[in-house]
Design brief:
three-stranded parallel β-sheet; Inosine-uridine Nucleoside N-ribohydrolase, Chain A; 339 residues; globular; alpha/beta
Length: 339
């Protein structure tokens, strides 16, 4: 569901041209996540214009993990019969990394963004394989990680009575924990970190899908997630909408259809940038047992003027919902005209 909204926002926002989608292991196995992406494109009338490529089936240096079925369902996007069978399957002519490199090089320098809403494996592999693309792209936007410590007033939830920073272990968010080495490489690569935006759980949990916004084409998926977040995390206000925020964060924030994100000190107005360190020590099992903090993102505020990772503290939430609803309406118009 999260990826579905991210795809829809990218496909129908008037300021974005979605060049392609690379799938990655995560909510389910690669075969299923690829099927899901193709199904979403079919549902929104974009199956013939936006290609899907198969990305990484496992992390850089670890065995793959998948999100639990009580969050995303067996298929990774359970909870609705609305999504059709794909009209077009994945493009198997090129691996995702090579396809992404070709698409990015075809754009003018400083214009194209790479957005990762799952494990960061594809993004890390892309820039490791083609480091010349780091200065070429406009930026990298990542949904993942968690700061904690009151970074925002977001509801982070509790499990078994224990407050959490992460959503997979007490400290780790799923996308980072799924491939901590990929995340660490991105944040440790200074040239790339300086043009990276990280949208952590502290921000995504500000955008809760309350009853007022549970509507339109993907309403059944939102209801599925709403029950999950009540039952698993004890968050009663509604499910947070994570992945579309990584798409929204690439907008300049000045246009009529852009969504302002706030990345300045609320008192001084000074721009804030961060050094991000990922804990790679330990195994997933040790992290679950509370023995290690594997996958934790540790942030340090840099001195004014230093280049580092942009981590917004908030956004214009009503504007986000308005823009997303407008994108849904555009999709409905396209799909309706084709019927």
């Amino acid at each position: 569901m999260q990826d579905a909204f991210a795809i829809l926002l990218a496909a129908y926002h008037p300021s974005i041209r979605l060049l392609g989608i690379s799938t990655v292991f995560g909510n389910a196995a690669l075969e299923k996540t690829s099927q899901n992406a193709c199904s979403v494109l079919t549902a929104i009338g974009k199956s013939h214009s936006i290609p899907v490529y198969l990305g990484a089936s496992q992390p850089l240096h670890r065995p793959p993990i998948h999100a639990p079925t009580d969050i995303h369902g067996e298929s990774g996007i359970d909870g609705t019969p609305l999504l059709p069978k794909p009209l077009v399957g994945p493009d198997l002519s090129l691996p995702a990394v090579e396809a992404a490199a070709l698409a990015l090089r075809a754009q003018p320098p400083g214009t194209a963004w790479v957005v990762a809403t799952g494990a960061f494996t594809n993004a890390a592999a892309l820039f490791q394989t083609y480091p010349d693309l780091i200065p070429h792209v406009a930026g990298l936007s990542l949904m993942g990680g968690a700061v904690g410590g009151g970074f925002t007033p977001a509801v982070m939830g509790t499990v078994a009575g224990v407050p959490r920073v992460g959503n997979w272990t007490q400290f780790a968010e799923f996308n980072v924990l799924a491939d901590p080495e990929a995340a660490a490489w991105i944040f440790d690569t200074v040239a790339l970190a300086g043009k990276t935006t990280l949208v952590p759980l502290d921000v995504t949990h500000l955008v809760l899908a309350t009853e007022e916004v549970q509507k339109k084409m993907l309403v059944e998926l939102l209801f599925f997630f709403a029950k999950t977040y009540r039952d698993v995390f004890g968050i009663m206000e509604g499910p947070p909408l994570h992945d579309p925020l990584a798409v929204a964060a690439v907008f300049p924030g000045m246009g009529a259809d852009d969504i302002p994100f706030y990345d300045a000190d609320p008192v001084t107005g000074a721009r804030e940038r961060y050094q991000v360190t990922v804990v790679t020590d330990g195994t997933i099992e040790e992290a679950h047992a509370g023995l290690k903090e594997t996958g934790r993102t540790v942030v340090r505020l840099l001195s004014p003027g230093e280049e580092g990772v942009r981590i917004p503290r908030g956004l214009d939430i009503p504007k986000f919902w308005n823009v997303l609803e407008e994108c849904i309406e555009r999709a409905e118009d396209v799909v309706g005209a084709a019927l």
